[in-house]
Amino acid sequence: MCGGWCCCRRAGRSRHCPPRRPLHGSGADWTVVRAAWFAQNFSEGPLAAELRESGELVFPAGEVREPFVDVRDVAEVVVAVPAAGDRCAGRTVEVSGPRLLTFGEAVAEVARAAGRELAYRPVPARAYGERLAGFGLPSEEVAFLVEMFASMLDGRNAYLSDGVRQVLGREPRDFAAYAAKAAAAGACAVG
Question: In this predicted structure, what is the pLDDT of residue 20?
Answer without folding.
Answer: 54
